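Let us practice reading a record.
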Amino acid sequence: MPDIDIDFADRDIVLSQIQHRVAKLDTGKKHNTGVYVTEIPHNPVDNYSTIDYKTAEDRGYFKLDFLNVSIYKDVKDDKHLTQLMEKEPLWELLTHEEFTQHLFHIAGHHQLCEKMRPSSVEQLAAVLAMIRPAKRHLIGQPWDTVMTNIWTKPTDGEYYFKKAHAMSYAFAVVVHMNLLCEQYANSLLENNNLRMGQSTQ
């Protein structure tokens, strides 16, 4: 079955508008992001599925992951989001820790970015995949070696990032990079206008 993640500025607003059941881990605890929007055996008291999400998938139930991604709160509308996604980011900024420490999903991984120096969305997706245990051995390898091996499913069951997930997160990082640059440019412009206004008084 496909694995679908959907990003929201506030997932609770969406969940309050749709009937859903909460996915459950095999430990019996609540899944952090997973929900079912179709009927599934569930406990009517807490709305949790009575079967864990892996068993549910084996039985044909389709889980969606509704994610809170706070970067979207600063996106004005669909047009603005498209512009942020399509604009080529300043890839060199990924080598500056003072920038990466503010980035969604990249914060804390500055050394990896500096070592690999991604310069495309697909390379950035590969960097995100290298954060996961199964692909850490590719860190420092040439890009052709990385791209040949990064999306291969591990045979030992070790956790890895599927390409669809990694690409989605890479585009979110690009949006965040361009949003931070846009906010910084607007801040400079405002400060400049403020200084000009003061000098004319």
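A brief commentary: Helices lie at 11-15, 53-58, 78-86, 97-100, 110-116, 121-130, 143-149, 163-199.
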